[in-house]
Design a protein that fits this description.
The chain is 9% helix and 37% strand. The chain is mainly β and 380 residues long. Among the domains are: 2-167, no CATH class; 270-358, no CATH class. The strands form six sheets. A twelve-stranded antiparallel β-sheet has the order 1-6-7-10-11-12-13-14-15-16-17-18, covered by helices on one side. Strands 19-25-24-21-22 form a five-stranded mixed β-sheet, with helices on one face. The chain starts with a helix and ends in a 12-residue tail after the last helix. Residues 1-24 form the signal peptide. Keywords: Signal.
């Protein structure tokens, strides 16, 4: 009894210390996941562990996912959800069937989903036996009724009573006007434990300036910039290149993403142009600019035709396999890489090419990827 009271006290303190007040009906996502609730229960036939297409509230089709909240790498940067879009009444179970439902949903009086409990229903002698709780999701809302957290629970101790622990969570932070400022794939207070996150930077009018993605180490890996009307502009990346020159080491460089194409990117700093490395001596090499009207990603590969190319530099690799460029040629190529992004290619031999992409200065990348920097021109 004393241990149980202590556990309840710890859970209550966690809820109190969490931060923004939770929407009262659903309560805190830190509350005891397996505890009985007075919320309206809806047993449904949908197994949350399966991916399928369900009927939407407006007659549309809704594809399920493993996670209740997610973000797309490209396109709409805002979080996507699916559980709130399903017409759950179409899958409700009643009578004896309700007792063996694989999922039980709990809603508040306004129809907000508060909990989604997942059950395993064993079969014994061809009949469904008593289901047991294996995990699920707890949803928390802020004082304005907006989704603030989703916590996934799993059974972590297989005994009686079973123990359920938080295994994943998503935190959604908003400003005083209710606009989303961050989505964190981890605890809301993640200062000491970095987590994959997406930050939404806005101007005084609430328009998006930049959207910054960080990885699980807390390192910024992508920035999508927006114009004064909130429309997508340039996208910047800080990723490992598919090509690394021999002896160069494959380290990530920040760069402005070029137009889509299937060629390998060679992201490099200005000084690398002094001697591009192949390790193959005696090869003819060239650096070219593809004409503006010629597509670089066409299946017929017209951009490989020398008649569609303007040579910026050429030569033969030296005994060490390097392709040295004179200072004037370096400047010419470097300027072309900025003026014609996605159209400057290095051919280390006649059958191989890669797109030359200028690395972004580190100071500019730091300013561009800083969630605290609200300057409209932070990325340059």
């Amino acid at each position: 009894m004393r241990c149980n009271m202590r556990r309840q006290l710890i859970l209550a303190l966690a809820a109190a210390l969490h931060g923004a007040p939770a929407w009262a009906a659903c309560g805190s996502a830190d509350a005891d996941f397996a505890a009985p609730t007075a919320l309206a229960e809806s047993p449904v036939s949908v197994d949350l562990s399966d991916e399928r297409v369900l009927l939407g509230r407006n007659g549309e089709r809704v594809a399920t996912r493993r996670a209740p909240v997610w973000t797309a790498e490209r396109g709409d940067p805002l979080p996507q959800t699916w559980m709130d879009k399903v017409d759950w009444s179409a899958y409700r179970l009643d009578g004896d069937d309700a007792g063996v439902a694989p999922t039980r949903l709990y809603f508040d009086a306004d129809g907000r989903l508060c909990r989604a409990l997942r059950y395993d229903v064993p079969r014994r002698g061809g009949r469904a036996a008593a289901p047991f709780l294996t995990g699920g999701f707890a949803f928390e809302y802020d004082a304005k009724g907006s989704l603030a957290r989703v916590v996934e629970y799993d059974q972590t101790a297989y005994r009686k009573p079973a123990i359920y622990s938080a295994v994943r969570q998503t935190c959604l932070k908003r400003d005083a006007q209710g606009a989303l400022t961050a989505l964190i794939e981890g605890p809301c207070d993640n200062a000491r434990v970095p987590a994959a996150s997406r930050y939404f930077l806005r101007d005084a009018a609430g328009r998006l300036l930049r959207v910054i993605d960080t990885n699980v180490e807390g390192r910024a890996v992508a920035v999508q910039a927006y114009d004064g009307q909130g429309r997508p502009r340039q996208r910047y990346l800080n990723l490992y290149s598919r090509y690394a020159a021999p002896g160069d080491g494959n380290i990530p460089y920040p760069y402005a993403e070029p137009p889509p194409n299937d060629d390998s990117l060679y992201v490099l700093e200005r000084e690398r142009l002094s001697g591009l490395v192949t390790e193959v001596p005696g090869n003819k090499w060239r650096i070219v600019r593809i004409a503006d009207e010629v597509p670089v990603d066409d299946a017929d590969m017209p951009s490989w035709n020398p008649q569609a190319q303007t040579i910026l530099a050429e030569g033969v690799t030296d005994p060490e396999g390097r392709a040295p460029l004179e200072p004037a040629a370096q400047e010419k190529v470097w300027q072309a890489m900025h003026d014609k992004p996605g159209r400057i290619f290095w051919y280390p031999d006649p059958m191989t090419r890669m797109l030359l992409v200028p690395a972004m200065p580190q100071a500019r990348w730091q300013a561009c990827s800083d969630p605290a920097n609200l300057a409209a021109d932070a990325c340059g």
